[in-house]
């Protein structure tokens, strides 16, 4: 059995990671002022945020064409793969996964297994990397999916956004009405709800400094309660300086923990807006036996 791993561009994997783990990445389309771009192909993160500041209309995103996905899967079949695990952004923020579930049975020359990461960004990238490692070790699709399910259960995150306008206009915030009233005066904290997997705002904080401090308190409590080693991920939206400063502080608080940094690219930046920050964490998978 030869298993291929596919994900989408919101995994924000580096070129080196894509090549090292032989992961196929499908770009998500981003529409700005009527023009469609492919994330990571003809639209860099830097260019996106520049365009975001000057765009006349609210940017939007769409799903990769189904025909394009069929071509990707057929190409992998031609390369000798008989199975593909296709790992994609949360079905609660995109219909992409559900579209793949519909077409998977129609692909005849390769078995397609769509997988809902229930998350996005580099956290999803970690799932793709681990799946690739297991495939290389000869693990079965069932073994890989079972492992991913377990690792996915340990993922959590808190987003700090400058305002909710992008999420509200994009329809990605499930409880917007409870927070929209003071949207200009607060730094709302958001997360993916454990039960619904939808993005929800859960606290209103009066300043960014206080918001980051509150996130640190939440993380500290989790760190004390879990019975497995954690790794952390600091994510920034067009604010690498703030991301680096926060990552440095987290490292000082937890010197023995692996702290990495990533970014919100065009697709996720469309919904979170400029200057968003997040602290995410999950079980330290480098210590897992695959």
UniProtKB/TrEMBL annotation:
It comes from the Bacteria. One of its GO terms (molecular function) is lipid binding. Keywords: Lipid-binding. InterPro entries: DegV, DegV_C, DegV_domain_contain. Coiled coil: none annotated. May bind long-chain fatty acids, such as palmitate, and may play a role in lipid transport or fatty acid metabolism. This is Uncharacterized protein.
């Amino acid at each position: 059995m030869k298993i291929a791993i596919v994900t989408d561009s919101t995994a924000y994997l580096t070129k080196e990671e894509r090549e090292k783990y032989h992961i196929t990445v499908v770009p998500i389309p981003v529409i700005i002022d009527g023009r469609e771009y492919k994330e990571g192909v003809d639209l860099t993160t830097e260019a996106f945020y520049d365009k975001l500041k000057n765009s006349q209309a609210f940017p939007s995103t769409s799903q990769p064409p189904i025909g394009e996905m069929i071509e990707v899967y057929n190409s992998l079949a031609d390369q000798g793969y008989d199975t593909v695990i296709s790992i994609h952004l949360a079905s609660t923020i995109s219909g992409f996964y559900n579209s793949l579930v519909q077409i998977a049975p129609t692909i005849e020359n390769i078995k397609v297994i769509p997988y809902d990461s229930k998350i996005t960004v580099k956290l999803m990238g970690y799932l793709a990397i681990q799946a690739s490692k297991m495939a290389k070790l000869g693990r079965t699709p069932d073994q890989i999916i079972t492992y991913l399910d377990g690792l996915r259960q340990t993922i959590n995150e808190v987003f700090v956004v400058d305002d909710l306008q992008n999420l509200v206009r994009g329809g990605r915030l499930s409880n917007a009405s409870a927070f929209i009233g003071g949207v200009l005066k607060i730094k709302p904290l958001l997360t993916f709800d454990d039960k619904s997997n939808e993005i929800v705002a859960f606290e209103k904080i009066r300043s960014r400094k206080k918001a980051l401090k509150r996130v640190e308190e939440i993380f500290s409590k989790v760190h004390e309660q879990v019975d497995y080693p954690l790794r952390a991920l600091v994510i920034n939206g067009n604010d690498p300086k703030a991301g680096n400063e926060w990552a440095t502080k987290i490292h000082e608080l937890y010197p023995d923990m692996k702290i990495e940094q990533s970014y919100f690219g065009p697709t996720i930046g469309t919904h979170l807006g400029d200057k968003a920050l997040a602290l995410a964490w999950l079980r330290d998978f480098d210590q897992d036996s695959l």
